[in-house]
Write a structure and sequence with these properties.
With 757 residues, this protein is α+β, with helices and mostly antiparallel strands.
């Protein structure tokens, strides 16, 4: 049974395929893309476990199974290990001796996630835990003694352990693994948050809140569901559990520091951690990371060194070299005040107490983050964007020089598994859904012929006709070069002008790149005969620091010029029909859609998703403020309203003439729905065609898969109707029909995939 759509070109099966073997992509195709993940190489480097999640978009509950593949033989050796169609198997982990692996599954009667083990050669999975609240996470100890897991009521999760040898014996002898009762390792007054082993397996480090708020639990049980914003929350400290004696020792006690995340050095001599603000407001906002500083503890003495002390500056990625000699972190180019400039890597010898950090990568006009180290600590590898691609880079820790390692026309990221040393290449290009490769050594990463493909979760894509996707560049009104991605219509014919969709990415510090179906389902539009431009306007990353920060103090002007000159470039090239153009975007893309609405009538239709109208009200309504202040010109709102009002689309709303569809999640914390309500009301009062879609939820994106489908289908219908003068204008009856099951999909032919004049 398939759903039936009646939105002109948006039928589930589009007519006029490019060839007898291929057909254009549909919205339902996007919903059915499987997602591989959880890459877990075996410690011996011979095999890899991974998961594949198959969407059930109607129920919005993807089903996940386990697979295994040979790292040497690659894709032909891939084999499915679990077949539970109604349950999920996730988070696989190899036993240290590679004799079995453990995973989480909800296949029990109570739907709680429990631990199961299985041999790599297959056979039945064997349940090894049966704890009332299920298992949150787990890991094997480095000394092969324990399998430790976290379990308990929310807010009171504790650590428990199973004996490794007993598990192995139960598997070998066929006895009941559940006969081994887990040992409770902790009995803390509040739940364990993050935890990790000492490298020798002798201890576990963890952090937890100072106390558990029982009154909070009681008020909820009593039905008092009021949401108290910025309510008091307990601070968190760092602890050490000795696995031999099971004695817990508190390691931090600074009343001015709340321990958030920590990293244990490879030799166990050091612990680096983030210390958060003790102010309740600063601990409970989305931008809480701004108010964290970095600290370093010597485990032998408990001595703590404060590494940074800079209010409103965000450092991240604290990392030790493999020999623990060096410590590094990532932070903005200016560590003294809030900026959204490119990040650098800061490095010093770990034991150099009080020493200065060296700033590395100053000549690299992009952001650096610690990915993984070379074994000798001489090089830090990281992935970074290069215009419309992402590539692996290498930072020389002695000279600070950066070199680009790969050069693929794709979205590419390389990571190294810490336990096995296996290199994994996460990869996607315009014709390849996300997949993963491996390569024998870093010396071969730049040689595509040396890659071994491990996963192909979406072979059905080979049957689809895709529009050619290329990098495009043009000159903006101020003479600067701007770039982006152009998707040609399926069946493109040179000399024919096509309708255009301008798909504007969010962020704004993001970028559209050459990856599979990026940018609001661009390939579906291409299959229906549209060209799609995805501009990396001023404010986007991957084009250098100046490009990224040119919008500071004047949020819209240069970005708008970049977008419009990109459109003009495609018109001048003879690709686009200037009388048939639409624009859409979400988040920052919605901001720009609203600005375009108030600045020009060149577009026939607009779809605004989670876009701002009024920066003044947006400042207080949103869950982020500091970055808004930075972009508007770093003027504090309550001391100077004028910059915020001057850059608000609402100030110019009387200019609006373009039919505009509006989409927003009702409880969106980032761009709250009143911004969209205000736009909708203004357009109604001005007599401009408009519709408002208010989706249930409390997230910045549409949480329900069915509603995401409705958004895509109705949005395309809006574009078809106003841009191309075809199909049916949206109404609620059409939306309801997307939920109706029918014996057959309706096939509609309106020249899909054909060039139009």
């Amino acid at each position: 049974m398939r759903l039936r759509f009646v939105f002109g070109l948006t039928a589930l099966v589009l007519a006029a395929p490019a060839s007898a073997q291929e057909r254009p992509m549909t919205w339902l195709d996007i919903q059915e893309i499987a997602r591989p993940g959880s890459w877990t190489p075996s410690p011996d480097g011979f095999s890899m476990l991974y998961t594949v999640s198959t969407p059930d978009w109607q129920e919005d509950e993807p089903q996940t199974d386990l697979y295994m593949v040979s790292l040497r033989d690659g894709l032909p050796s891939s084999r499915r290990l679990t077949f539970t169609e109604d349950y999920d198997e996730t988070a696989p982990a190899w036993s240290p001796d590679v004799g079995f692996f453990v995973f989480l599954s909800d296949r029990g009667e109570d739907d709680q996630e429990q631990l199961y083990m299985m041999r790599p050669d297959g056979g039945e999975a064997r349940k090894i835990t049966e704890v009332p609240e299920g298992v949150s996470d787990f890991a094997f100890s480095p000394d092969n003694e324990w399998l430790v897991f976290r379990s308990g009521e929310s807010g009171m999760e504790q650590l428990h352990a199973l004996d490794f040898d007993a598990l192995r014996s139960a598997l070998d002898e066929g006895t009941d693994a559940l006969a081994q009762a887990p040992v409770q390792l902790t009995e803390e007054p509040a739940g364990i948050d993050s935890w990790d082993f000492a490298p020798d397996g002798s201890a576990i480090y963890f952090n937890r809140p100072d106390h558990y708020d029982e009154s909070e639990e009681k008020r909820l049980e009593a039905g008092f569901t009021v949401d108290i914003r910025n309510a008091e929350t307990p601070l968190s400290q760092l602890y050490r559990l000795d696995l031999g004696t099971q004695v817990v020792q508190q390691l931090t006690s600074d009343p001015q520091v709340s321990v958030d995340r920590f990293e244990v050095s490879p030799d166990g001599a050091w612990i680096g951690f983030n210390g958060g603000s003790t102010e309740r407001y600063e601990r409970n906002i989305t931008g809480a990371g701004l108010y964290r500083d970095l600290f370093l503890m010597e485990t032998a003495t408990g001595t703590v060194e404060r590494l940074t002390e800079n209010y409103e500056v965000s450092e991240s990625g604290l990392s030790f070299s493999p020999d623990s000699r060096w410590i590094a972190f990532s932070g903005p180019d200016d560590l003294t005040r809030y900026t959204m400039t490119e990040n650098r890597i800061y490095l010093r010898e770990t034991a150099d107490r009080g020493g200065d950090f060296r700033k590395l990568g100053e000549d690299f006009d992009n952001s650096l983050r610690v990915g993984f180290w070379s074994e000798d600590g001489s090089t830090v590898y990281f992935n970074a964007g290069v215009k419309v691609t992402t590539q692996l880079h290498a930072l020389d820790t002695s000279t600070g020089e950066v070199r680009q390692v790969t050069d693929e026309r794709a979205a590419l990221s390389v990571e190294r598994d810490e336990d096995s040393g296996v290199l994994l290449i996460n990869y996607s290009d315009p014709e390849t859904p996300p997949t993963v490769y491996t390569v024998a050594s870093l010396d071969e990463v730049d040689d595509r012929s040396a890659w071994v493909q491990l996963v192909d979760a979406n072979p059905q894509v080979d049957e689809m006709a895709l529009g050619r996707e290329v990098e495009v560049e043009w000159t903006s009104s101020d003479g600067n070069t701007v770039g982006g991605v152009l998707v040609y219509p399926v069946g493109y014919q040179e000399g024919t002008r096509y309708p255009l969709i301008v798909a504007i990415h969010g962020g704004p510090a993001s970028a559209d790149i050459l990856r599979f179906n990026g940018g609001y389902g661009a390939q579906v539009y291409a299959g229906a005969g549209y060209a799609v431009l995805k501009p990396n306007y001023r404010g986007s990353r991957n084009y250098g620091n100046a490009h990224r920060t040119d919008i500071v103090g004047d949020y819209f002007t240069m970005g708008y010029e970049d977008i419009m000159t990109g459109v003009d470039h495609l018109i001048d090239e003879g690709i686009v029909d200037p009388d048939r153009m639409g624009v859409l975007g979400w988040s920052a893309g919605g901001h720009w859609s609203n600005w375009i609405l108030t600045q020009t009538d060149r577009f026939k239709a607009i779809s605004s998703g989670a876009g701002t109208m009024n920066w003044i009200s947006m400042y207080a309504q949103s869950d982020v403020q500091r970055n808004r202040q930075f972009y508007i010109g770093d003027e504090f709102l309550y001391e100077d309203f004028d910059p915020y009002w001057d850059q608000s689309p609402l100030k110019y709303i009387a200019n609006a003439k373009t039919p505009t569809m509006i989409h927003v999640v009702e409880g969106d914390p980032r761009v709250p729905s009143p911004q969209s309500v205000e736009l909708h009301m203004a357009l109604k009062k001005l007599g401009v065609d408009t519709e408002l879609f208010m989706y249930p939820g409390r997230s910045h994106g549409i949480p329900d898969a069915r509603n995401r489908l409705v958004k895509s289908v109705s949005e395309m219908a809006w574009m078809d109707y106003y841009v191309r003068g075809m199909g049916n204008k949206f109404d609620w009856e059409m939306v309801l029909e997307t939920l109706e099951e029918a014996e057959e999909s309706q096939v509609i032919s309106d020249g899909a995939g054909q060039g139009e004049n």
